[in-house]
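Technical note accompanying the year-one report. For the benefit of new consortium partners, we illustrate the data format agreed upon in the data management plan: each record pairs a sequence with a structure-token string. No post-processing was applied to the example shown here.
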Amino acid sequence: MSIKVWFDSELIAADAAHVSVFDRSFSVGDGVFETLKVDHSTALALTRHVRRLARSAAGLGLPEPDRFLITNAVAELIDANSAEFGSMSRLRIQYSAGTGGAGSERASERTRIVITQTKATQWPATTQVITVPWARNEKSPVVGLKTTSYAENVVALARANAVGSGEALFANTVGDLCEGTGSNVFVVLAGQLLTPPISSGCLPGITRELVLEWVGARETDLPMSALADAQEIFITSSTRDIQPVSHVDGRLVEMAPGPVTVRAQEIFAQRMAQTPDP
């Protein structure tokens, strides 16, 4: 068997899937996407991911994607690839503005959906992070949208990886803590679990959303110095779940994981096991 992908409107072999060099998601980053985890053939939090994909598409002025089609396509793809992956894999749903010219102006209204499934990364129990000198723009026209324009994240993560860290954290333009390249960040200060608000410019992460609902945390503006003052820090994403941070810029975090983080991990794992599509 060969790995299958969902391409436009059908399942085909991955090595047979090709897009035009003028596809706008490729040429100018005019597209949106979602990444989610597949656990034993179940796509986790699929409804929330598809809902956010639609919000991101609306933010770019793209037609609303067919949510029913995407949900069915995900199920078909996972079933088709069942013999190719173990208990855990990674799914990416990409929605492109379609084929157009090489400039910013859209020349076509025919959008494209591509869904791929790949092997999941086994994240370490803890991770080190660095802070980077570049800022997230909380006033950007695409703030809060998960677009395929990912160059800033690629550059920042490469800097982190070069010094042995697994993630890079950004401030926003007013110097407050914002987010990672592909994660949201939580800190524990004086026993309180805190995270930057959406107004900081961070992506409204699905795992972040579930931690707020299930575990409870207060959204508040946080100075970057909160990273030095925090007793515990963890980052969240749909593939990492809740990952404790052991070092920030080489400095040891007091507890990794600490009791608040451990409790959050336990609650998250229990609730996700009970309701894989909350």
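Partners are asked to follow this layout when depositing records. The mean pLDDT is 95.
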